[in-house]
């Protein structure tokens, strides 16, 4: 995530694009990709939840499932946090696209909203994810990261008030920014390597 953010900023500066507009274009699609990725997590057994005694649960029996070989939870009913996350990301995708469809917004509003909503959801989800929080921890490490991302999102929402208006409800504008975002592929390739 951090390397991707640096890649977007570097590309925007190099091409003379508004960084916040580029981030806004990205966040209109990222939650949908994240939701699809979480379905992969559900089938593999990674990112699984803590044991569940009531409510929805999933049980992994295949020794190749990460919940079995890494966490030692073969046959134990677990919270399907991957499914919760997939549904949450789908809801965030719909929310952001509904907000974008309302008309002109200041550059950075969608990005700030994404950081606040997604990080708040992830903070909450960590209470149900494995491993459990130890007695000596106030929060898990990712919950601290989520708190910092919520703060960054709030800061972005405040800063965006002085930014230019962008109309993502206009498909021409959306596709132009999407093409700008697609041109980032080489930057992601370099970051990946």
Keywords:
2% strand; two-stranded antiparallel sheet; mainly alpha; 2 strands; 193 residues
Describe this structure in words.
The chain is mainly α. The chain contains nine helices and two strands. Helix content is 62%, strand content 2%. Helix 2 (19-27) crosses helix 8, helix 3 packs antiparallel against helix 5 and helix 5 packs antiparallel against helix 6. The longest helix is centred in the middle third of the chain and has 20 residues, at 81-100. The model has no long low-confidence stretch (mean pLDDT 89).
Task: Give a short summary of the structure.
The protein has 193 residues and is mainly alpha-helical. It has helices at residues 2-15, 19-27, 30-44, 66-69, 81-100, 109-125, 141-160, 171-182, 185-192, and strands at 105-106, 165-166.
Write the layout of secondary structure elements.
Blueprint: H1 2-15, H2 19-27, H3 30-44, H4 66-69, H5 81-100, E1 105-106, H6 109-125, H7 141-160, E2 165-166, H8 171-182, H9 185-192
Antiparallel strand pairs: 1-2
Helix pairs in contact: 2-6, 2-8, 3-5, 5-6, 6-7
Number of helices: 9
Report mean pLDDT, rounded to a whole number: 89
Approximate strand percentage: under 5%
Task: Classify the helix fraction into a percent range.
Answer: 55-70%
The assigned structural class equals mainly alpha
Q: Order of strands across the widest beta sheet?
A: 1-2
Unreliable residue stretches: none
- For the secondary structure, the number of strands is 2
Q: Give the biggest beta sheet.
A: 2 strands, antiparallel
Q: End-to-end span in angstroms?
A: 15 Å
CA radius of gyration is: 19 Å
Shape: elongated
Q: Which series of helices and strands comes N to C?
A: HHHHHEHHEHH
